[in-house]
Write a structure and sequence with these properties.
Layout: H1 2-18, E1 33-46, H2 48-57, E2 62-75, E3 78-89, E4 99-113, E5 117-130, E6 139-153, E7 156-168, H3 172-178, E8 187-200
Amino acid sequence: MKRSLIFFLLLINLSLYSNDETSDRYSPIRPTYLIDISINPGLGIYVGDFYNHLVRDGAYTMTPVFDLYVSLFFIKYFGIQALISSGCVIHPQSEPIEGTILYMGLELFGQYDFKYAYLKLLTGAGFQHTTMLLQWYSSAFFEVGFEFAVRITEYLYINTGVRYRRAFLESIIIYKKYNLAENDTLSSVTISSGITFRVKNWIKK
């Protein structure tokens, strides 16, 4: 399924560029890079009522995070990207509440390239898988954020980003089973820095 989706998106790009009869230098839609791959370790801070829950249970309110983004450009300043991210909740005495979190989703992004840097704005949604004592927090989530990167070489950038994630569509049955407040929603702000590999647009007119 994933291979079919990637192949379909590449075909869309090919059809767009094949109809563009201007040169690469003056094309208003043809991106210089076709694919960006960003690897971002960082720190997450839980916020809102979920933060209060962690404080009440004596768990840590921060988590290490690891984000992987694969971005595919449709046109020069716009595209879609897939994300895989991870986090956790750690309790000093291994009591409730504790577990790992895996985020998987798709996002739309807008990106503007300067001469030696770029700025990216992103928003999207996906599903968060939780384990151990966090299992009742499995749900959908949405994300919004931005990323700024500085060029090291033509194909390598150093990036820094800030993102806000919040769950939605939690199970009402599970809330009643564990006697949780309905507003006890898993949400966090993450700050990360890493590297971005950029793949040159090889599709010809």
